[in-house]
Structure formats: C-alpha cells, structure tokens
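User: Could you write out the 3D structure of this protein bound to (6S)-5,6,7,8-tetrahydrofolate? I've included everything you need below.
Assistant: Certainly. Input first, then the structure.
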Amino acid sequence: MVEAGVDLILFETFGDIGEMRAALVAAADAGDIPVVASFTFDETGRTFTGTDPETAAVVAEGLGAVAIGVNCSVGPKQLVSVVKKLGQSTNIPILVSPNAGMPEIVDGRTVFREMPETMAQYAASFVEYGASLLGGCCGTTPEHIQAIKGSVKHLQPVKRSRQFGLRVASRVKTVAIEPNGIPVAIGERLNPTGKKALQAEIREGKTEITRRDALAQVQSGAAILDVNVGVGGVDQIAAMERAVNAVQILVDAPLCIDSTDPKVIEHALKIYHGKAIINSVNGEEHSLETILPLAKKYGAALIALTLDDAGIPPTAVERLAVARKIVERAEAVGIPREDIMVDCLVLTVSAQPEGVPETLKAITMVKRELGTTTSLGVSNVSFGLPNRGLINAAFFAMALYAGLDAAILNPQEQRMMETLRASAVLCGRDMRAEQYIAWEQSKDGRVTPAKTEEVKVFTPLEMLYNAVLSGDKDNIISYIEKAITDGLAPMDILDKALIPGIEEVGKKYGEGKFFLPQLMMAGETMTKSFERLRPELAKGPAKKPAQLFWQR
Ligand code: THG
C-alpha cells in the first residue's frame, strides 16, 4: 500500500492488542505513513481479549499511531464511556465510527436499527468527550453520515493537553509511575542469578517456578515484574519467549525486560502485548546505538543506567551528566523524556561507603534537573553484610526520601513492602494515608503472608487442576507423568483434575474474569494433556471416553 502511494493507513476493528502491535510495527517498517489504530470494544468496555481503552491508547500511542479510534463495536450508546476514557487517556486525535447498532436478522435480511438522528446525537457527545474524527461502521448509510455531519459541523474539537508522565501496560492494565504517586515495586525474582532451581528450569525449557514466582510477587504487591533469563549456554531468546508468554497471560502486571543482549530484548518486545520497560540502556555509545532504536520501534519505556564507557562515575554530578546525555540522545530519536526512568546505581556500602550518599544525591538531582522518574535496584547496597534485609530496608527508606519512584526488589520480603508503604505516607506520596490504611485493613483477618520458603504443597491432582486453570502448557506433561508414576488412574486424572479445571476456566470466562487468551491457553493445555493420556486411556478398562467439547 505504501508503494502504491496511500496517504494514511487505518487499522480498524482490532480486538486483540497483540495483533494491533504487530500491525503498527509492520506499518512503521513499510514507510513513513501516518497510521490510525482503531479498536472494537464490547459491551463490557474492553476489547474481546480484555484490553481497556487507556491501555489501548498507551500501547498505540507508544507505537506511533497518529490517532486512536474505536469503530464497529456494539453501537453508539455503548461507546460513550469508551470514548470518554480515551479522551482522558491520550492527547492524540480520537476517531469514533460505531455501527448503526447491532445487526439483527429480520425476514432473512440484516438490518441495523439506529436511525440517522440517533447516530447524529451520539456524534455530538463524542465530540464533547474529545473525538475529532467521526464516521459510521456497519449499517451506516449516506443519510447517517449526512445527519452526523449536520450535528457536528459547528462544534470545535476539544483541546486536550494533559500531562501523563510514565505509563507502562500489560495486555489488560496500565500502570503509571508518578513523581508524586505511590512508589512502584518492580518484582526482581524472575532472575536466575544465584538461584539454582530457576537456572535448571530455564535450561530444561520449563516455566513452573517462573509462573509460581510471578503470581506470588504480584500477590505481594509488585506492580511490575522484571524478567531476566540470563543463564550461560542456553538459547536466551527462546527462554525469554517462554517466560514472557507464560507470565503475560498469567498476571496483569506489566513487564520489565531485563537483558544485556539486545537480540533477547528485541524478541521479547516483539512478542509482548503491552508497553514494556527495557532494562536497560546506559551511556555507552554501543548501548545508545542498539537500545534506543528498539525502544522507539516497539514503543517501550526505558531504564537508563548512569554509567558509560568509563564505568560508574563516583559523584552525583557526573551521574547526572550521563543521565542527561541519555535523555538527549533518546529525545533525538523521538523517545519522549517521560518514557525514561533513570537508575542512579547503588554500590556496595561495605566496600564503598562514600558511594551511598552520592547515589541519594543523584536521585534528587536527576528528578529536579531532568524531570524524569527514577528507579533503583536496591539490594546491591547490602552485599557482604549480615542481615542484608535490614540494610536494604533502611537504604530504601532513604532513597524514597530522596525521591525514588520505583525499585527493583523482592516484594515477598515483607519488610521492603512495609518500608515502601510507610515511606509513601511520610514523604507525602500517599495523601491522607489512604493506601496505607487500606493495606493495613486488608491485613486484618488474613494470616500473615507466607514466607518465601513456605510454599503450599499441592497434591498431583491439584497441580493438574491449577495447570489447566493457568493455561500451563509448558509443564502439564511433566505433571501428568508424575501423576501416572504416583499410580493415579488416567481416568481420574481426566475426571477429577483436567475436566474440573477446564470447566472452571469456562465459568470464569463466562463471568468476564478470564479473557480469550486465557481460554485459548487452557484449551491448548487440555489438548496436550489429552494427547499424552490417550494411549494410557486405551490401555485401561475398555471404557471409551466421550469426545470432549474443546476438541470439537
Ligand atoms: N538496576 C537495574 N536492573 C537490575 C539491577 C539494578 N536488574 C538486576 C538486579 N540489579 C536486580 N535484580 C536482582 C535479582 C535478584 C537478586 C538481586 C537483585 C538477589 N538474588 C539472590 C542471590 O543472588 O542470592 C537470590 C535471592 C532469592 O532467592 O530471591 O538477591 O540494580 N536497572
């Protein structure tokens, strides 16, 4: 189309954010043509794979869409709240092109019920909420367009110029990292450094610990999860793909892609469905040249480490200079400043005690001078000391006072999350202590959070049930092998674990708690299970299993 000379590309009626990302990346590759990203939302106000309007806007805008739209969908009435949310979520132009209602079959003909006058009335309210491009989708006639034109031609588009700051997103949720908001915990545990079992799992191509730790970290309060698969001698591109695909369906938290290999980062960004954070870029020429174009191309945010070809500078002033260089180079390739989070780096206090105050000073200076947000991997500070958790927590409180906005930490260390929540109150980032009080109250009547080591032990049947529920197709076969070795009857595996699991998935889907990707993953998990169980079932009593509904 670009070669043929089109002026604009409109991607319309997209229900899946992953497909829209692929389309936007492809369009940018094809040439410098303006692209409009238009989604279809259902009566729940989300796309059919669960994306809300703000997340659609954050992802599409990050990938360079010149306007965001909503088209087709249920009809104009149901789109009012969607358009309102879009208007509150982005400053780029908004296109609204609804169906003339839902199609109905009358006497064998498809009819759309909305009259031109009704469509015209809704068009005027869309303009009020921020739309500046209007049209109609299925069932729209020239009369509808004429009526819409008549009702909006005297209206001025509403000017929107909100400051949004740093926003990242998963498939179904946007997380804002705000200089005055509650600091954000980035879970560090999906990282094999120093973890033998996770290293082994990554080598074997499994994702059991990955899934368990992803869930546990989110339950402990991580808003974002860092994903690192840095194990020597393994195909890290494949390992990263497994980890990202397992985690992005399982949890709502956006991901932070942590790798030193640009190829691993690029592959993760290609398959991720949201707006990720790249961890990290730094002031080295090679890093700037390879990582900044990836952030631009795939619409990702960045953690910028204040080090360069000469290493980590000792003083705050020099680290600010590195941060400034990175921000300027990023802006030069079209990455907005607010998409950068600066990591001023903390050294080990036992080795270099003079380094800690410089890091704290650097955080304050970067925020004031550059206006970006800041992040830090906190636990480096305590290396080589006893009771590391205590040092980490005390340093964390100081860094929060210095203005830290996000931290890579272990959210399952209760002391760290408590320090975060208390410091937010003390630093004026949790007004009227609302969040703090809510957290404290939610603890009442709840057992104290389980320690990291005290993992609940599931029976083999519970493992299988959970695996179907979470669409765990990477590990289901090994659970089935285990159940068979334990002497469980294949028919029981099916009747007491797998089928109840898929039924629960269907129930959650019906209730709007699960979305299509989860349904599909669970279906694939069932198919894999059944392939493994089929020969076992054939061996057993001559009872032929009924055909199962997900195989039709
Ligand atoms: N800045 C940025 N990214 C980073 C870091 C940083 N990514 C990596 C690291 N530093 C932060 N992540 C971790 C992950 C694990 C541990 C520390 C930091 C860790 N692991 C224990 C060990 O090595 O013994 C294992 C503990 C466990 O079992 O949980 O401590 O500074 N931008």
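The longest helix spans residues 516-539.
User: Perfect, thank you.
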